[in-house]
Design brief:
Number of strands: 6
Number of helices: 3
Strand order of the largest sheet: 1-2-3-4-6-5
Helix content: 10-25%
Length: 126
Amino acid sequence: MDYFYVLTKREKENEREGELIGFINGTLSKGELTHETMANHNKDGDTLCIHSVAVELKERRKGYASFMMKRYVEEMNKKRNQLKSIQLLCKSNLIPFYQSCGFQLIGESKVEHGKEQWFDMIYNIQ
């Protein structure tokens, strides 16, 4: 796993491919989350910026997003020699979800995307 995680559901255990349930993707940057760092990947970065946590509509409210986030964070903790933190932007209604996955609220984001306010969250690598 690099910085892209995919969760699929297989009908039979020996199947190689399955139905897409969801994914998480991110890129590396140096320092804090900005509009520019969200648009570029810096292979020497020490901050992992999560861009998307997506779950297929029919699979929502089944715990898959929590499962994926916890697995993703677990895998990223193994990269603690390179990573200092994982950061993301979210809307206010998702703050409790990300807090349940171990993220802390930093506050209102300076990044503007659309009309709604975004919030910065961080998970410090242990």
